[in-house]
Amino acid sequence: MSNMQKTDVLVIGCGIAGGTVALKLADKGIPVTVVTRTNEPVESNTYYAQGGVVYKGEKDTPEKLAQDIMKAGADHSDLKAVNILANEGPELVEEFLIKRIGVSFDKLANGHFSFAKEGGHTEPRIIHVADATGVAIEDELVDSLASHPNINLLKGMTAIDFIKNKDKCLGGIFLDQKTEKTIQIFAKKTILATGGFSSIYLHTANPAGARGDGLAMAERAGIKVKDLEYVQFHPTVFHMIPESRFLISEAVRGAGARIVKADGTTVMDYYDKERKDMATRDVVARCIYEEIEKHNLEHLYLDLYSYIPKKTILERFPNIYKTCLNCGVDITKELVPVIPAAHYACGGVVADEWGRTSLENLYALGEVACTGVQGANRLASTSLLEGMVFANRTQQDILENPGNNVEIVELEDIEISKKYLPLAMISRYMKKIKSIMWHHVGIIRTIKELKMAVEELEEMSKELDYYYTEFELTDDLIGLRNACTTGVMVTKAALANEQSLGCHCRRD
Ligand code: SIN
Asked: Which CATH number fits domain 238-341: 3.40.50.2300, 3.90.230.10, 3.90.700.10, 2.60.120.20?
């Protein structure tokens, strides 16, 4: 019999979405178990967010923010969800991020916030902590979770599947990576906050854990998902060999940097005369990609030093400066080689305005969820806010409907074999998935390549299902199988949608 635990609320993942809902419920006296895959709970997409969080600019209104989100999302966003974000977001930034967990956002000498602007925003409204906002948020959040008397923080646990009883979620099954045993956690309410899947692409801005675990679990449980074809590619990821994951924040273009060719000529004037480098992310990523393809280049460049004073670069982007310098590029004097890379899933597990999914007692929050806010293309720096706003709503919903008893059912033990699938084989499969996704389900998609990708990924999926049942369960094997399932889901969604919109571009 595997280990068994019970709790009132089970939260899977502890980025900003999972962390916010857990802390808010725990503050109200609810016992919460937070499960995180890595041994370092800060390790999440939130941690790597550079740009910042949308707040309220000095001449801003919720209506202006809502309009910008709708426009960036190619009018595919759900207006109700967008209005919730625009109206409830700023107050929550103050109440939760600033007052509850104590994040110190950068301020100017006059005491006002140092507002940044990014692509698609008509107002400077993004607050930040230099160029490492995610680190500042996640450090404070995880400190608060780890020291909370009502929170049981379990590290090094890989989510395997939900426990279901007919149409109800009863909790989840996890692999304890240390003991290599499974553990069943039963809960009145379960919250899925496992993040996105962009690391199933060869070039990505995401950490390796963003491999679609939550999405694949939802698929196996028959939970509704949508908009998976809208994978957002960030225009500027530092180009290094082997592939890099280091993002050069869009905030550098907000501060004046330009995308250029090797001779310093600008690129975006040609593609978008009006908005130039501040066009929305889908547009800029596609232009860079096309320019690279047209001229058979390895990458383009970001030029900071011709457009931003050195002092500003050093003060505003210290992390980007240091990381690039360590790789031999001095951004105060040299062009920075960049390529677009997979960054954010606009679609995901369908969640209503309270975070509720199609499975009773299961909520989805953050990047794994599709609340409808992000439409066909996410407006920059809205994702942390979205995670927090809907986490706050889920918390309210759970307080109003806490559920009765924790329902426990007898499950068959998962057979654990003693054969390990060799790591080299796991890594070979993962490379293959990443290559298929990048080359066939990338920035520009064709029917022929999408069909080819579905075929190859489905074949691989069968092989991986076999390994999954025959070999010892490890975090890597679970993740590999999930990455492949997610690849199939995204590719099928991209194939089914013949209309180019936002970040989904079909050229058949
Ligand atoms: C960035 O800093 O460019 C990323 C911000 C975001 O993805 O919203």
From this structure: 3.90.700.10
